[in-house]
Amino acid sequence: MGQDGRDGQPGEHREVVVVGAGIGGLSAAYQLQQQGRDVLVLEGSPQVGGVLRRRSVAGVPVDVGAEAMLNRRPEGVDLAAALGLEVCHPTVASSRIWTRDALRPLPRSLMGVPLDLDDLSASGVLTDAELARVREESGHAATPVGDDVTVGDLVDDRLGRAVTDRLVEPLLGGVYAGHARRISARAAVPQLVALAERGSLLDQAPGLTGPSTYSAPVFAGLPGGMGGLPSTLAERLEVRTRATVRRLGRVPVHGGHRFALTVGPTTDERTITADAVVLAVPAAAASRLLAELAPEAGRLVGGIEAASVAVVTLALRVADAGALAETDASGFLVPPVEQRAIKAATFSFAKWGWVREAGAADGLIHLRTSLGRHGEEAALQASDDELVAVSLRDLHDATGLHATPVDTHVQRWGGGLPQYALGHLDRVARVRAALEAVPGLAVCGAAYDGVGIPAVIGSAQRAVADVTA
C-alpha cells in the first residue's frame, strides 16, 4: 500500500511510526501489525528495501544488493515462511580465493581462521613458512581477551599475519567491507573470542561444525532474489515513500507527551504524532533524529562509521564466456594484499539455480563483482563505465574471461555497511541505556546487532519489544 508522503494530513496520529523501510523497519512494522497495532512506515527514498534491491539486467531481475541470508539463524527463513515465500539454497559450487596468482580452493574456516590444516596446506594459500607459523598455535594456552580486541590483532597473535592478510581480510571484507585490524572481534566474530579464551584455536577446530563457505544449508535465498522479501512485506503494510522525516520531537497531550515527526520538505512539511517510534535508518540519519530527545544516544550512534561499496552486475552470452560458463565455482574472494580493484566476484549463474534458469532462455549468464572498503571511497568515485572496465580486467586476469557484456548495471551503496569498531557492543549498550529515558522510542538495524539479514530482523524484534513493553 505504498503511497507518496504528501498524502499525510496535518494532525495525523498513529499508534506506532516506523522510520525507514529497509528490512529492519519493514520487519518491525510487520511484527507490530501482527500484534494488532496501528503502524505506519515512513521512507525517505522513492523505494523500499534498503540494501535488498532487484534490477533487470538483460531482461532478468537479479539482486544488486544483498543476495543471501544465513540459513542457520532462524529469523530470516522464519519471516519468509510466514509470508509464504519459498526458500532456496545455493548450489554445491564452492568458493575460491584469488591469491598468489591463482584461484585456489577456499579452505574450511571460521571467518578465515582455519579449521583443517590439511585443507589449508592443500589450498596453497600460505607458504611453507606461514603454515609452520600456524601450526605453532597448537597447544596455546587460554588467553583472556579483555574488554575487546580487533579480529586481525587476535588472529595475528595466534596464527600469524599471513592468515589475517590472505584469509580473514577477504572474508570479513565480504561481510563488512572493512579491515580486520579495525573490526571488533567481540561484535563481529564472538565465537572466535570464546575459543581463544578456552585455549588453542587449532586444537578446538575438529569439534566445530561448518562446511565450506557458501555451501547449503549455511546460506539461503529466495527464487527471484532477496529483493522479493521487502517488496512482499511492503505490500502488506502501509508504507509512504518520499516521506523524509526531518525532525523528531515531542508535543504535550493530556498531561503527557506524544512523539511528533516533521515529515517532508520545508515548503510542504507535515506533522505526524505517534505513541511510539522505531528508528530503522542508518546510523548517521538516526543520530540526527535522536539529537533533540536523546542527545547522548544520538552522539553515540553518530560515532558508528560506515563503508561505501559498489556492486557491478554483468550479463554475458554463454557463447562468449568460454570456460567460465562451465565453472564449478560460485565465485572468488580477493585479499587486499593482492591490490586488485575488486574485492570479490560472484558467479550468480553457478551459485543460484534460479539465476541460471532465468538467463538460459536467452543464452545468458549473470555474474557480479563488488568493490570498495572502509576508508577507500575515492576508488568508487570512478564512473560506472570505469567500474565495469576494472571489473572486466580483474575477471580476465583471474579467469581468462574475454567478453563484451550484453548488459551491465552498477549499484552504489553509499555508507551501506556499518563498521563495528573496538568497543562496539559497549557503544550499543550505552545507546539503549540512554534511550530508556525516552519510553516508546527504539532503534534497530544493521548498525547495532549484526549486518546480516537475520541479525537485522532480530534487531527489529528487540526494538518492537522495547516500544511495546
From TrEMBL:
Record SUPFAM superfamilies: FAD-linked reductases, C-terminal domain, FAD/NAD(P)-binding domain
Reaction equations catalysed: coproporphyrinogen III + 3 O2 = coproporphyrin III + 3 H2O2
Group of enzyme by EC: oxidoreductase
Alphabetical list of Gene3D superfamilies matching this protein: FAD/NAD(P)-binding domain (3.50.50.60), protoporphyrinogen ix oxidase, domain 3 (1.10.3110.10), Protoporphyrinogen oxidase, mitochondrial, domain 2 (3.90.660.20)
One MF term in the entry's GO annotations: oxygen-dependent protoporphyrinogen oxidase activity
Keywords from the named record: Cytoplasm, FAD, Flavoprotein, Heme biosynthesis, Oxidoreductase
EC number(s) on file: 1.3.3.15
Primary residence: cytoplasm
Record carries keyword Cytoplasm: yes
Cofactor: FAD
GO cellular component, one term: cytoplasm
Domain Amine oxidase stretches: 23-467
GO BP annotations listed: heme biosynthetic process
Pfam family, one: Amino_oxidase
Pathway: Porphyrin-containing compound metabolism; protoheme biosynthesis
Localization in the cell: Cytoplasm
Protein family per UniProt: Belongs to the protoporphyrinogen/coproporphyrinogen oxidase family. Coproporphyrinogen III oxidase subfamily.
Function: Involved in coproporphyrin-dependent heme b biosynthesis. Catalyzes the oxidation of coproporphyrinogen III to coproporphyrin III.
Protein's name in the database: Coproporphyrinogen III oxidase
